[in-house]
Design a protein that fits this description.
Helices cover 65% and strands 0% of the residues. The chain has eight helices and no strands. 14% of the residues are buried.
Length: 187
Amino acid sequence: MAASGAVLEFEEYVRTRQDALLRSARRLVPDPIDAQDLVQTALVRTYRRWEGITDKTLADAYMRRVMINTRTEWWRSRKLDEVPTGDLPEPSVDDGAEQRADREMLRDVLTVLAPKQRQVVVLRHYGQLSTEETARVLGMSTGTVKSTLHRALARLRHELEHGSYGYTRPEATAGTVPEPKEAMCAA
């Protein structure tokens, strides 16, 4: 661009119209930083052709068209995370059947416990009461609640692993005892 008058004219256009151009860009792209980049890219492209725009009142329309075309180019050149393949993936529908089966299994295995043990387990893990709250509800000392809970969970673990329920611990955690709260919360 050789004419300094055209440069000054373009600078004046940018100074007076930059807010409106940014608002137009925000309608095209949701991210404010991307909108600013879109305006800047469109301004660079428009600057190269500024002298060719004979009717400067149409500069906004020209800029909007450049922004739309630029946004379309960006969209087309984006990197896709999905790779087309001829094989369909196995359907994975979580209909809750597995959770219901786990809950039913836990209800069944709870029947092997003595009534007091069952009450302690249900209040502590299903009802999520503290040890003190459980003791107060059942009229026991906190020490009795703790020992009853310990024996009850050991019995449940044994029944789940050696009974007819078919439960086995995963190999990675075979040496550790799983948190009983997770298992009982599903009940």
